[in-house]
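Quick start: read one record
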Amino acid sequence: MSLLLTGTEELSFELSGSVREPCLELPPALSRPRGPLRVALTVFRMRGLRVAGLPGPGVDYMEALWRVAVLHEGAPVWLAVACDLDSALVRVTGRALIRYPVRAAALALAPTGFEVRAAGARLAVELDEREPAPPAPPAPPLVPLLVASGARLWRVPWAEVRPRDSERCQLRVSEDTLAGRTLGAITWDPFVERLTGRGHRCGRAVRID
């Protein structure tokens, strides 16, 4: 896989959940698995995103990437349904190179939680570290990340470098009007993964249909 962009996620959060009645129309090449759709949300603060191999300071920004688990030719894939970005430059790049459905957003991240504002709505999550969370289940196998652009499907080359540190914490959602604007009424799982120093790799989207 030829990777194009590289950077470091200074601070990241990984949430998961499910939605029974998504406000989402899938492209014809994709289908829903049985039962509620599984949802994933990655929120991070990026440091130094740059074209791999080129010198320079890179670009700093914050992002929230929303995905749903669907099927392509009977195999599980992630479909990116919204990419909330606080940088106008990165929104242009994300739309042109990766085909993401981008939205202008304002984000705030701290070790104790995060906030995302986009599409006139808000998601605010706090971490509760008063009691230890149970161990995380084994990580699921990696599956392709797809985006739909017009009537076409594209695959996003994607890889991650292990973080310096990760911790599983209980979460409390203090406000969530953004999920409904994005996918529908999401039931969030009770735990969130907090990561620091994870390497970020992604490349130009490749058309697959």
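The chain has one domain: 5-207.
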